[in-house]
Amino acid sequence: MATHHHLFPLSLSVPSLHRHRHRRSLSLLISPSPTYQSYIYIHSSLSLSCNPSRSTNSNSAPTDTDTTSTSPPPPPPPLRVAFSGTDNGAHIYSSIAIADSLSLLHPNTHFLFLSPPSPSLSSTTIPSAGYTVSPIPNPFLPFSFLFPIALLHSTISCLFSLYKFKPHVFVGTGGYLSLPAGIAAFILGIKVVIQEQNSYPGTESWVLGRFAERVFLGFNGCVKYFRKDKCMVYGNPVRVSLKKYTSKAVARLHFFPRSIKKGEGEAQVILVLGGSTGAPAVNYTVLNMYADMLTEHKNRYIIWQTGPDRFAEMESLVRRHRRLFLTPFLHEMDKAYAAADLVISHAGAMTCTEILATGKPSILVPLPTAPNDHETKNAYIMAEVAGSKVLTEDELDSSSLEFAVDEILGNEKLREEMSEKALSVARPHASMDIAKCILSLLSISAAK
């Protein structure tokens, strides 16, 4: 079977990390560099190198410094990292996950997120995670002949923000703002790395990949669109909260504090994700089937995220029901996934990654208007590696969706198989691997 049909497998064409032996020292002194003179602070159990062209002799004997130094290492000086993406949940949560991991590895790190101005999802989500936002004007306008002017405007804004912040590295996670921000970073001589979540790269990632020093990928099949010696297939970062254990019983009581207690048979919870901007096909199909399903199956519950753009409309059309939790956006996704037996969603890269990380059976409805039809590619990869059920929008209606739900929830053995498959290909440590490689990239450069 062709390698590009698999999600996150190791590939001979993709450079792998050179593993180092355990070291006692908690800091590594880096020689002076015009760009960055510092100590890279890492945990003693973590490997440093991610340079595909270099390796270290792990059997070398410890030096005198290793054995005789008794003075405590000085604290690491500040590291500054800039991020950008767009007003999209996948890009936002990828950036936050990488930033969280960098904070753990190098506590004295400062971050700046270049993001769309308020009101926007990023203008509320990123500050709530504890990070600073610098608003940048949108480089894409409805009229294409104005695009060069808008791109220039955004790039100049990014130049001012980055020049003032002086980051040691810029991390682009895709989306329209990554392009002007990446260009500005390149002009200023700042190291550029990108993280592409999908199986097919967006235009912004494809352009930035030409001068990025590292390209972190979620899918192995995406390697062919970039220089192979730059690529690292680590999977997609997941938000830290999803890595924490949450009891299914506790999670369900969070959404249904009165109904679940009554224990009407074995409860089955369906999580419907309409996306950060709202997926019309998914929302309208669930609207047409939820009432009959809840009436026919007394043990079923629905957690339904409509997306902020669709919430007012859905709320006006949906009848209140004690076994239905309707919300525009889910901020506690760890509880939502923990409570769920089945996920119904579009096939965005981050949603697919979270389904794998949490081991949830899924029904995926790829968005046909996604750039380069990447959601269809994502969905069929998920079908192959995790057993996900795929319904195209042409196939989707209330009958086909209800049939697929019954097929999965009515077969416990099938659910267990789908869950095991998903967990077997998950890459829950992607954000930490990416953060380690970023730190190693800085240290290798400074040592040259």
TrEMBL record:
Boundaries of each Glycosyltransferase family 28 N-terminal domain copy?
A: 89-216
Residue stretches in coiled coil: none
Provide the transmembrane region boundaries: 140-163, 175-194
Identify the residues that the record assigns to the Glycosyl transferase family 28 C-terminal domain, covering every copy.
269-422
Instruction: Give me the stretches of Low complexity compositional bias.
Output: 52-70
Record-level Gene Ontology MF annotations: undecaprenyldiphospho-muramoylpentapeptide beta-N-acetylglucosaminyltransferase activity
Task: Check the record and name the SUPFAM superfamilies matching this protein.
Answer: UDP-Glycosyltransferase/glycogen phosphorylase
Q: Where is this region: Disordered?
A: 52-78
Q: Which Gene3D superfamilies match?
A: Glycogen Phosphorylase B
Protein's name in the database = UDP-N-acetylglucosamine--N-acetylmuramyl-(Pentapeptide)
For this UniProt record, the keywords arranged alphabetically read as follows:
Cell cycle, Cell division, Cell membrane, Cell shape, Cell wall biogenesis/degradation, Glycosyltransferase, Membrane, Peptidoglycan synthesis, Transferase, Transmembrane, Transmembrane helix
GO BP annotation list: carbohydrate metabolic process; cell division; cell wall organization; regulation of cell shape
